[in-house]
Amino acid sequence: MSSVSTDPPLDRRRWIALAVVLTASFMDLVDVTIVNIAMPSISKDLGASFSVLQWITEGYALAFAAGLITGGRLGDIFGRRRIFLLGMSGFTVASMLCGVAADPHLLVASRILQGGTAALMVPQVLAIVHSTFPAHERGKVFGMFGAIVGLGAVSGPILGALLTEWNLFGLEWRPIFLVNLPVGIAGLILGRRFISESRSTDALKLDLVGVALATLGIVMFLYPLTQGRELGWPLWGWLSMAGSAVVLALFVRYERHKKAKDGSPLVELSLFSVKSFAGGIGVQLAFGIVCGIFFLCWTLYMQLGLGWSALRAGLTGIPFSLAVSVAAGMSVQKLVPRFGRKVLQGGALVMAAGVLAYIWEAGHYGADIQPWQMALPLVVMGAGMGLIVAPLTEAVIAEVPREHSGSASGLINTTQQLGNAIGLGLVSVVFFGVLDEGAVAKGQAATAFADAYRHAMWWVAGLLGVVLALMFALPRRPKEAPAGSEAPAVESAESAGEPIAA
Length: 502
Description:
Elements lengths: L13 H24 L1 H8 L3 H29 L1 H21 L3 H18 L2 H9 L2 H32 L8 H4 L1 H15 L13 H24 L3 H28 L12 H31 L4 H7 L1 H22 L2 H24 L5 H27 L7 H26 L6 H5 L3 H26 L16 H5 L11
Helix pairs in contact: 1-6, 1-7, 1-9, 3-4, 3-5, 3-10, 3-17, 4-5, 4-6, 4-9, 7-13, 7-14, 10-11, 10-17, 12-16, 12-17, 12-19, 14-16, 15-16, 15-19
């Protein structure tokens, strides 16, 4: 009995509370992956341009990335239950707005709102788990959380494909968002009753100026990058991208001032003096860009280029998702403890091999390529990704001082999402920038999209080379001291962002 005397009192309602927060995580994960598969249907129904399609995913990722750390701090200060319910309420309303949007720009605005409210909801999940469950039960709970992450990544595209194909009540793609309404309402009712309130006793202050500067700098870079091709690359776009560097430099300067003033900057800049962390952040950013480019281009290639249905495209991705799950489990349990960072480097090489195989197949088979022919490169790519995503965060945070582990985890998750947003923005250059729209208009979409897809995949292969090079900054072997394992996840809600594999 004495071994658990310092843990929170056991509450029989804790398992219902767990079901609520895990459902919220599942909603967010599915909402990230479910949208890509419905892109062609959205484009056809709303007349959305290619750049608007990018913003439907990029707007969510950008708002989520910008709000993650602040969302965690809000939970620490004002109460995790309160901020979680606020985020879930906003996410449910935003989902409804997405589902009823009659204009592509309204859909983009609703997606940005959805990402911002998810940034309030998601960071509270693991912090609520810590405050609700005693230490001896957390291992089981975190295992369940990992299973939900995997299930969300696998089921999102399939669920999106089914809801789009079924065309429920003639709503076409809209049920992919409207399905969140009953789930969100039930979660709010149960959450208010069964989740206990908790907050940090020494919570840091908010850094709203830092959030504003960082967000402004990122948007100044991403907006012209995404819109530039359709607008003919105007001068103001180049000036905006150049100005983003100035704004981000001001952000760094302000963060130093904030640190000296009250010790609560948005980003703990001293973390970058740790070689493994600085290199690892580079890995996270580059890998996020890889995922942002690949997943959107892949969906567009299969549906708009090859003319496949949403269901066929969704089922084609199953081998990839299963390979990610299997390889991720093996990497953490068996491979990394024995071979260290070589596992992550091997994952980058394996994934690059799968990309090169996919490039060859797309060119060799052309418009006649079949899902079973895609299976081998997808399995190889998925295996490589699984070897990277599961152990990467621990490797990045391994040499970070324990007192900064929460800030480091929050920054890692933010960087993952930011990389994804940048990758989505680059799609306008690496995919749409080389797409022969004249050939598409002449009925040669398969050839045109295949050529653009292969070009984008060469970018993916090159970025994986960058990932491999940056991995040399990671520690050679995992360390025994769990500097960032449980501490960041439970001491600060900032650390609860989802893996980039989603």
